[in-house]
Amino acid sequence: MFSKANLAVPCWLWRSMRKLFLLLSVLLSHAAHLEGKKDNQFIWKPGPWGRCSGDCGPGGVQSRALWCFHVEGWTSPLSNCDENNRPPKERSCFRVCDWHGDLFQWEVSDWHRCVLVPASAGQAPPRTAECVTAQHGLQDRTVGCVQKLNRTRVVNEICEHFAPQPPTEQACLIPCPRDCIVSEFSPWSECSKGCEKQLQHRTRAAIAPPLYGGSQCPNLTESRACDTPISCPLGEEEYTFSLKVGPWSKCRLPHLKEINLSGRAVLDFSSDSKEQVTFRHQSYKPHHLSKPWDLDIGYQTRQVWCTRSDGKNAMLSLCVQDSFPLTVQSCIMPKDCETTEWSSWSPCSKTCRSGSLSPGFRSRRRNVKHVAIGGGKECPELLEKEACIVEELLQPCPRYAWRTSEWKECQVSLLLKQQDPHWHVTGPVCGGGIQTRDVYCAQNTPASTVQKAKEVSRPVKKTSCLGPAPSASQLCSLPCSTDCVVSSWSAWGLCVHESCRDPQGRKGFRLRRRHVLMESTGPAGHCPHLVESVPCEDPMCYRWLASEGICIPDHGKCGLGHRILKAVCQNDRGEDVSGSLCPASPPPERKACEIPCRMDCVLSEWTEWSSCSQSCSNKNSDGKQTRSRTILALAGEGGKPCPPNQALQEYRSCNDHSCMQLYWETLPWGPCSEDTLVTALNATIGWTGEATCGVGIQTRRVFCVKNHVGQVMAKRCPDSTRPETVRPCLLPCKKDCIVTAFSEWTPCPRSCQPGNATVKQSRYRIIIQEAANGGQECPDTLFEERECEDISLCPIYRWKPQKWSPCILVPESLRQRIMGTSEACGKGVQTRAVSCISDDNQSAEMMECLKQTNGMPPLVQECTVPCRDDCTFTVWSKFTPCSTNCETTRSRRRQLTGKSRKKEKCQDSDLYPLIETELCPCDIFISQPYGNWSDCILPEGRRESQRGYRVQGDSKECGKGLRFRAIACSDKNGRPVDPSHCSSSGYIQEECVVPCPFDCKLSDWSSWGSCSSSCGIGVRIRSKWLKEKPYNGGRPCPRLDLKNQVHEAVPCYSECNQYLWVVEHWSPCKIHNELRSLRCGGGTQSRKIRCVNAADSEGGAVDNSLCSQDEIPPETQSCSLLCPSECVMSEWGPWSKCPQSCDPHSTQRRTRHLLRPSLNSRTCAEDSQVRPCLLNENCFQFQYNLTEWSTCQLSENATCGRGVRTRLLSCVRSDGKPVGVDQCEQRNLEKPQRMSLHCLVECAVNCQLSGWTAWTECSKTCGHGGQMSRARFIIMPTQGEGRPCPTELTQQKTCPVTPCYSWVLGKWSACKLEGGDCGEGVQIRSLSCMVHNGSSSQSAVSVDAALCGEMPFQDSILKQPCSVPCPGDCHLTEWSEWSTCELTCINGRSFETMGRQSRSRAFIVQSFENEDSCPQQVLETRPCTGGKCYHYTWKASLWNNNERTVWCQRSDGINVTGGCAPQARPAATRQCNPACRKPFSYCTQGGVCGCEKGYREIMRSNGFLDYCMKVPGSEEKKADVKNLAGKNRPVNSKIHDIFKGWSLQPLDPDGRVKIWVYGVSGGGFLIMIFLIFTSYLLCKKPKPHQSTPPQQKPLTLAYDGDLDM
Asked: Model-level pTM greater than 0.85?
């Protein structure tokens, strides 16, 4: 058993172990996780960058996705990857916007040199010898995206947004290496006569440099020893000796020991001079700041030695004879240009934020304190600019936009005047015109800052606005006024009370009306009165209207009966109303009638009352109406007899009113005005509007007019038809005048102004909206001007030179030490101070004078203190005065002074002239015309414009003008002078004429012709014809027909019932058989007809031809009187209507009824008839007929603009007959909606031009060839048939020929050695003021230096070091002339625009001992334009003794060395192959072996020489043998003797032929036969063989370049 204490230890241990185990497991799992991370190697993988988004410019942002990948390829949570290595997810970028295209561009450099393509592995580089014309190469260039303004580089992606990147590499061709090309040698130089050793030389010049790795130039010099016939005895060679001077040393100050006095040396430079000159020494005062223009004078030295002609030095005494050259001289110590400190930077030019990335600029300046002296360092740049950073706090830049005023009123008169210059206002005009407006540039005002809608920003310079300006003019149209079109009058109405609501009295009115067919248009359109009235008595507003039924017998079938009356009460308009309104009681319901019995007389019914014969009654006649009835059957025995003829007709009066109609006449409506009642009403209904718009009233006058009389009392017209005199209207809103704010004052000049001219500044404002309807008027002042204040006058600065100082020589101690002489004389230096002063003699900065003058007066000049032996003179006297004669001269004199008067050398007038003469100035000038005549220039007219718009007629466009021709003025010596000496204007002028344009002229329109159709639709035509054709650019004609006419046709419509047939009643039936007792049966009856005008109030007859002949009513007709026993029927009633479709299956019916039965029982005739409805026989269809639209019709006052196109409507029956429109209207056919359309006639607008601009400055500041020009611009191009624009929109004028003055450098003088024979010296050249006229043909002439102004102060361009070679020295020649410009070409084609030309200097060896010290030959090349392609070919002379000369020649005929291909060089010598080894043989010029003279060639069959055979007798006499031409070689006599006996002799000594010769001849003959037979066998044609010879492969050359290799 264990105790409790023993048990406690394992428990505690167990608990501790358990905790430790848990901790270890956590650590192990974490370590395992880390190990897994390490082993698994998770890595970050970013996606591609997305698009740049955000603000334009560098503030954009790009983002991309990130993934965590295992190396085996699967994705993992992002936490598995190391956060420390996490790539960025976002980055800033440059967001490119479209407007950046104006800021950035690709910048490409020039292509670099073409280099050979490196050879690929295993491929040998091409050898130069193998090159024929060119080799393949590559050339590259740098391409980058830059900001346009400051050319700074940016990333290429910006430019790639707008344009692809240009290529950076391209293939090219490198021409083959070309060696240096030199000319032929010059002839050898001459050798001098003498016994000493001499060299002669010859030189050549470089024509073209070595290119593309070609070899350098060969020696340009060849030297050889001269052949001296006699050599000098030993030690007695003839040498020449030359004094050689070295270059001057740099100017330096003397040391202390070289100056007699400490600090300052007082040197007496002249025994005659009592002045003391101070010699400043700067080295004593190292910290001394010298005053301006303090000049330090130092000294410079040079070496002198004697050289022998063979190049060796000799004793100085052998060279110096009379005087020793100067070896020390005074000089000015070099002083660099001194400038002030930089000024502070100016403010940045960019003062606002514009949204572009372009920086601003700022600058700073410095001024010149001292100019460079004595070859010191020239002045540096005085102005420095740099870009400045735009601050973010800047306000945005103002933006500007085009603004316009409202359009001004339409001006029709402008176009009418264009059409007819003599047009003048005769009445209201309408139609097309031109209206203008002001166009100005103003700042865009942000919406947030706009306080009021009326606020208008002020105008600014038009250059501030970009883009095209809006049009300042346009075509417009004033509406033309047309009157109403009204219908014809209706019939007169019944007599009614003036007011049926309140009938009073027994007076009434009868009315007739018409209605408006087409409303009036335009402001002046007028409608006539629509109602006319006449007074009448017994008016009735309401009346009974009764209709009768058929007669019903009271008893039986005939006799008395009754008709039933149906009465209705109607008002004056024919409308049924209540019966209570009718004043009287209704008519009885029955009316007695009679039905004829069997034997009674039978009468027809009464006809309708005829139309009234007159529309009104006059003194002579009244209107009448008639009606009648006829006897249908006679009475029988005992029957009721027929009434007499008079009882068959009835008359009644009608239209018994007077013909004096009354009507209300109205005047036009007045303007809309305010009314107090209406204003109060507006206030109560809360009318808004600052006030002015609302409802007003219009009034007009109305008065009663009696026809043909005039105005009568108002009560005579019916008040019910009185037109209204007051109507409400919309008050037009008051429009106040709106003007812009004044523009800024034009800036006063910041800089000072020359002269005392007053400078003004101005400002203006523009009317945006004119005042209207009582609004506030526009201000009177639109332009203001004032003088600029505080304008400073430009001070005139000038140089003020002081007196020259005395001549300063070298210090005496130096002169004594170096020259060995103490006499104070010779060359020295004198200085002076030059200050800049203003015109009021105040001191000023040097910079002010440098700005106003070309240069500066010299501060230093050389001077001479005469020595004892020098000639001295007095000062030149003044020139003698000139006379007026131009041929005279003037002179000045001087005299010798002191001892010079006795010296012989001073008496030489050529060396020391004592008098100078020159021509006097002459005031005679010669003028000569120059250049072409100018265009014809018309005088400037008054530039007035109508409503701000200039028209072509405002200024003179044609007529008399002037043309000008410049003159060149010169003096008597031919020197150009100012043209004002010859002519005040510099021109000669003459009158000229600009022909005026004449427009096409047509006649006025003829009157309209009559309508082509009397009934229905027709055409009316009018025309105008050509009167004058256009010329000189006048307005062209419209299209004319063959008769030179232009027509206008419009449809017309004639009312078909305008003229009507009027018929009277039929006469009684006249029986044919008058013998019959009953007088019944068939007969005829007649009536009168007449044609009347429906509009005629009196109904008078007109000519029958005016009425339709197709519808003429019959004047007679057959009739019948029925006998008493016959059955009597009534007249046929009307046919019933057919359906509109005219269906043939449908029928129409008519009926009649029995009036009297027959005596017998015979049946009466039918009482009804039926017939089918047949189209175009008894049934008709109707349709509307429309014409085509007419041409655009304008008002009589208009020439163009808005018009009306019309079409007409008629009604046509289906058989083609035109009928009245009412026929179609009755059938409710669909009517076309529009019978008129608005249209536009294009206005013929002449070309509108601006005025001429001012003449431009002359294209040249002086001389010939200058041109001035002026231009005008097209404001409105030609429209329609307007006058075309002239071709001459610019005019040229030659400028007056003013002389050109310029400083011209003279030629360099010979090298001045100042006492030496050779060595280093100085060349000088002069600066002269020359005058010329600017043409290359005239040479410049020297004139007074004052005409050229201040001389430019540049000592370095007037003096340069030079050298003269000494005899024996090796030296360079002068430069050769520049060679002609040559291009690098391949096969005659150049691949470069710039050529090159060369020049060279060769060295001359005068002594072989000095050859080692010779300088290198020099080659200089420069680019040139206008080069040519040259090619080089080998040339060879004729052979001479197997030799010839071979040389290279350029294509222009110059012989050169180099340039031709070495591998193509022809041979210069030739040899026979095989060599000529046979006895007595030699190589001929033909390259074959031949025999010597006296020997004949025996040839082998292969053409080579076999041996030489001696010609018999050739020793005694000339052998007649054929020898090859050529020079015989000398013969070896020994060989000749050896082979003498071997020669074959075909003749005996006595001249006979030897026997063996015959044998040989026979054998030869047999051999020939054998050869012929053998040849036949060989040449016999073989049998054809199947196999074909192998085909040869063609030789192909392939090259995928542009050039044949």
From this structure: no
